[in-house]
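User: Hey, my collaborator sent me this sequence without any context and asked if I could get a structure. I don't really work with proteins. Can you help?
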Amino acid sequence: MSIAWSKKGIILIASILTMGLLLGSLIYAMQKPVTIEVDGKLIKSRVLFAGTVGSILDKNEIKLEGKDIVEPSLDSGAKKNMVITVTRAFNVKVLADGVSREIYTTPITIKEAIALAGFNLGDKDIVKTLPVTTVVPQQEIEVIRVTEKEISEDQEMPYQVERTTDATLEMGLSRTLQAGKNGIARNTLRVTYYNGQEAKRTLVKMETLVQPEKKVVAMGNITSVSRGGERLDFREARYMQATAYTYTGYRTATGQDPAVGMIAVDPQVIPLGSKLYIEGYGYALAADTGGAVKGNIIDLFMEEYTQCVNWGRRNVKVYILP
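Assistant: No problem. I've predicted the 3D structure and written it out in structure-token form, which is a compact way to encode the shape of the chain:
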């Protein structure tokens, strides 16, 4: 009798285990596999019957902040092979008009972020930020306000110089036949400002208000003249200012004792050793220099102090000889 009951007990236990196994398999089969995408991770999970997205997140201890976005929505029913995406909100800083504002948002476009911060974006405004399609955590966006205005400015138009030949004038000398006169042009400019500071200027148009008048200069080409009944051949002539000096107790810059016919020059204008003819003085040699002899100034040596005083300072025509 005990043996019979033992067989019955074994059969009962086996049946219970089998039923449990079948029930467990049925329950597992009835669970729906889902995937959760959050914080850059994929979490695999399974849910029973009429579970919701919210319950799935709770089961996996996924907490949501105020502006986090869940897709599908929290009250959506669970479906087989459902993918639940949790998009976290983050801080973005927007600077414009001298004001800095922080927004808390999920990924949106740059323009949307600017609008969310309460700023308007003008057609010509420049946005300075990262080269991304949607905003990323801790991103800074700077709006550079661009404004333009047109201004007018007048400027001189330089005159041109026309040169002609004068057969009555020595080589090196010139005569102005017609004085030049600058014209006036009016430029219309587009000035671009970045945040109120001038950034660039663009020429829109230019108009001539006053035409320039050219200057006409006659250039001498004579290289031979008559002086004192003699023919004087020269390389060029020029007008210079002449002073006079007498004995100083020193030799000339070329090491010679000073004598009539020697003059002091600026070597940058007339090289030392040059032979000259000076009207009112005669033939001369560039043999000396002087501290006050600069540019178109020459200093003529004379024997007597009174001669120097009488000469004074005068403009003379100087011929530079070959």
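In plain terms: The two ends are 158 Å apart (CA to CA). You can pass these tokens on to your collaborator as they are.
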